[in-house]
Write a structure and sequence with these properties.
Blueprint (H helix, E strand, L loop, with lengths): L14 E5 L21 E7 L10 E3 L7 H8 L2 E4 L4 E5 L5 E3 L2 E9 L2 E2 L14 E8 L28 E5 L4 H13 L4 E4 L10 E7 H4 L3 H4 L5 H4 L3 E3 L6 E4 L5 E5 L4 E6 L7 E6 L2 H9 L3 H4 L4 E4 L5 E4 L7
Parallel strand pairs: 1-3, 2-9, 10-11, 10-12, 12-17
Antiparallel strand pairs: 1-2, 4-5, 6-7, 7-8, 7-9, 13-14, 14-15, 16-17, 16-18, 18-19
Helix pairs in contact: 2-6
Length: 321
Amino acid sequence: MLRRPRMKSRGYLLGVIALGLSAALMAVGCGLGPGAQTGQITLMVTSDFGDGPIGKASAETGTESETAMRQLQRARTVKTRYGGRFVQSIDGLAAFSSSGHPFDWFFFVNGIESTVGAADVTLHAGDDIWWDHRDWSAATHVPAVVGAWPHPFTGGTDGKRLPTRLLCAPNAGNQCNKVEAALAAAGIVSARGLPGIAGKGSGLRVLVGTWDEIRTDPAAAILLGGPSDSGVYVQPSLRGSGFDLLNPSGERGATYGAGTGLVAATVVGDALPTWLVTGTDNKGLSLAVEALNLKVLARHFAVLLTAGGRVVPAPISPEQR
């Protein structure tokens, strides 16, 4: 795949680099390009769907001409290919295939998967950059993730904040009020509507309601097709009311029934991301709403919330296998 770099997967790699106005410049790899300084930009490098943090945090100041590639090269040992536009390896981890399972590097800007190489992504103040090295056998693309909250609502794309629509199921008024409050606490003003067509240019969408109430919305219905369609490693259960947690191969694992919440993000066609804040029932929906904070969502692709109070990342983590 020319579109994105392919790398080797073993162990778990995690590094956080916060780029702030008050920090000094580092001289690791390529330097910054010319231009005025920008505000804070963050960088995270992980493996296996965000699992297993390792690495040190450091700080820098970005510039107007900063790219995702330059940022990464300063922070990590990077090899590139295709004229330096795509990453070949990070800290020695490169493309790898094990038992028919391919592993690649993918990266997200404000929780939205990049569709171009890192050298072609210009960073802006407040951006959150997340590189993850994962098994892509079940999903070539994971178009959006929840682990950069409150992005993409605060950072948007290309330095521009996007409009946000809060789509509330008819019986989810109280829970929608709480979601609206969580967005407002992050500085986001949202317009309300009902679940429906997810068209191109319609802004960011947040679906709120029990699964039965939102399941016909295109962004919810796409979960039925599995990770290859939605990029979400959770599917509505085939064995009744509940959610099936999938492994990186897209195979069904444990089923979570009554009282389970789900927070996930996906994209339908050319539309912008839709977040799903839902549950098997009202109790599960309440758990999903309460999970809208960085403490719960940080560096997860999607999460299930159980009646017993557990936060279960999707897909199944190595510890769960």
